[in-house]
Amino acid sequence: MRVEVNHQSSEQIKKPNMEDQKMKLHCGLFFAGIPPILCLHEKELDFELVFVDWVAGETRTKSFLSNLNPFGQVPVLEDGDLKLFESKAITRYLAEQYKDVGTDLLPNDPKKRAIVSMWMEIYTNQFLPLASTLINELVIKPYQGLATNFTPLQENKEKLSQILNIYEARLAESPYLAGESFTLADLHHLSPIHYMLKMEEKGVKDLIYSRPRVAAWVEKMKSRPAWPKTVVKADHIFELMKQRRLPRQLDSSCHEVTIEAQKTEMVTGNN
Fold first, then answer.
1. Which helix (H) or strand (E) holds 247?
2. In sequence order, what are the residues at sequence separation of 6 or more whose Cβ sits closer than 8 angstroms to the Cβ of residue 213?
3. SS3 (DSSP) at 255
4. Contact present, 245 and 1 (Cβ < 8 Å)
5. Which of 29-33, 92-96, 199-203 has the lowest mean pLDDT?
6. Crossing angle for the helix pair 128-135 and 184-196, nearest 10 degrees?
7. pLDDT (average), residues 225-233
8. What is the spatial distance between Cα 213 and Cα 132, in angstroms, rounded to a whole number?
């Protein structure tokens, strides 16, 4: 499977050519953009990854807002005539539309599917607000050259610790959040956890590794074949972005083909 990574300005984004049915994922490659990439790899689908430089304001251009997402955010999936934004909407669509391809990420049984939905809501309403504050203060702000606000971090770590105690108890009952198999409920957690484990802030990594069942769950997810394919792209481009350089295209092994230097003013954006 070949996955192309292209950088193009939003002004160059055109309406999809219906003769070319390859999916396109427009992505900024921070944690909100990783679950759709991981989902596409789990489903073993062929796709083109279009990098949108939100730091340079490309998600706020007239072309992007009118053609892709009027809210000015990534990720955005194009699949034929469908344009879909919001990370969980994209992964749920892929899991349902391509159910018989690659990993089955949504069970057929209504009760089991409801448990997946429940844990996705727990992720959205309980886990993510706390984890995203840590990521914003300790990863995104330094990347943007902004000062970290350390005031909310300790409180957030304490609240997240309480949430993860509940996860630890749940994972005593089954190897994954929604039961015996890896589902969308697990998939969405891996992206923010990945960034948490890269933080040097005292106590953040311990939130995961001090809980043996949570740690085992994370390691099982990281050992899935789709994860290294996903994270190597994200980390590679993230590092290049820090140097104001973007890969125009990567081959399937994420080897750099062409590099274009970017001289853009740092502006606040979001994923």
1. strand 245-250
2. 167, 168, 171, 172
3. coil
4. no
5. 29-33
6. 30
7. 89
8. 22
